[in-house]
Amino acid sequence: MITVVGGGFAGVEAAWAAATRGQRVVLYEMRPVRMTPAHTTDSFAELVCSNSFKSKLSTSPAGQLKAEMSALGSIVLEIAERHSVPAGEALAVDRAKFAEDITRTIADHPLIEVRREEFQPEDVDTAIQNGPLILATGPLTSPELSEALAGWIGRKHLYFYDAVSPTVTVESIDFNIAFRESRYGKGDGQDYINCPFEKDSYLNFVRELVNAERAPIHAFEAGGKRDADPNELEGQLLEKIKYFSGCTPIEAIAEKGERSLAFGNFKPVGLTDPRTGRRPYAALQLRPENKEGTLYSLVASQTRLKWGEQKRIFQMVPGLENAEFVRYGVIHRNTYVEAPTALDDRLQVVQKPGVFLSGQLTGVEGYVESAAIGILSGLHAVAQLGGFELPLPSRATAYGGLISHLRDPIEREFAPMNVNWGLFPDPPEPMRDKGLKRAYKIEKANEGLQEWIELLRDAGIIGRDAS
């Protein structure tokens, strides 16, 4: 028997993946017995934010991930197509009909037993005596389960809030302006990319930053009531962010004085701009987000600006005028673990064998990504019951890219990531044409997918008719 906790995108996919492969599943969902601050119904896979599942284009990262999920039998994508609404190249759904259909389909499966009750930490050991346990409780995991997780993995490896800086592709950085150098020549001198400000460009950046539009704070993120005053919520949230992460939005720092960033987050000491031979007025640094060096995050640039404003403001930074953002900065409530240290290659908790994490708890971001990891969790549980190891996907695939993010040991501030071009390996020889480079990545991803499908067929995980 497989126990799945949580009826969100990851939980329903995990349950479906296991049940359709002949395994009995018990699926726990605490709603409506205990509601979360973000949900309004008791439906499975309730969409609490956007109704979009991003691009359907086969030439996009999101489209490639969908193709791989479909090959594994995704129930979320099947029902999403059934209730799709016009949204250009994106897959969007009628949120009410979609959630109702998911709920009905899961409940009607003869091998899935739905229990509308709260799963408690004291139930964990009993559950794993009967088989694998998959925790897919999402970004609003209950305090009780969060405490249990913290006990297994160490509190410093469990995050209750995102305080994340934006991330860009390295190929979109202008190295006619930006330069590689570590402060005072430490390390190999190539660890950081530096974007140098002159005084005028810096002051203009700060002026626009402090006047930019902030994203609203939801009551559940700050632990307040739904009708609480926004200013009160902001104070509550930032106090918690400070407590858990030691992070303050750069716009809040800039409001303290026009030179606050130049003496803090953007201090230029130990750097020399090769174009001028002198220290810049201020410098925004970027550090690698993966060992391949295809993604770089903006150091100490956590922000609560709206995403459109983030793009506008950060493209004012010298060297980032054409930056391609694969992840924007966020500051909000989101429970997840430091996957590279907390989980093994099967996304099983290292210190608690038999317990698998799934969805956003693992450190992925987004509906589709959470559902994708849900399928994988279900397959790992099936493999464990069958006494064999699940073949892992090629690094070239979208799945492989997400897993690489979760397992990459590079020193960084680990933060949730959605599928993006930077997660796909670059071609062995540099390509200047971005279109050709991306076409190469998709081609290799599809080749890797076909190889993975063959391995899964040989293992009996998918049927011979799957493609």
Alpha-carbon distance between the two ends: 28 Å
Total number of strands: 16
Biggest β-sheet strands, sense, barrel: 6 strands, antiparallel
For the largest sheet, list the strands in their spatial order: 10-11-12-13-9-14
Unreliable segments of 5+ consecutive residues: none
Percent of residues in helices: 25-40%
DSSP strand (E) fraction?
A: 5-15%
In one word, what is the shape? globular
Q: SS-based structural class? A: alpha/beta
- The overall pLDDT average reads 91
Helix tally equals: 15
Q: Please compute the radius of gyration using only Cα atoms.
A: 23 Å
Short description:
With 467 residues, this protein is α/β, with parallel strands linked by helices. It has helices at residues 9-19, 61-71, 75-82, 95-108, 124-130, 143-153, 199-211, 219-222, 230-245, 250-254, 307-314, 339-342, 367-386, 398-407, 434-458, and strands spanning 2-5, 25-28, 52-55, 84-85, 90-93, 112-115, 133-135, 158-164, 167-169, 179-180, 193-197, 282-288, 295-298, 325-327, 330-337, 355-357. The protein is built from 15 helices and 16 strands.
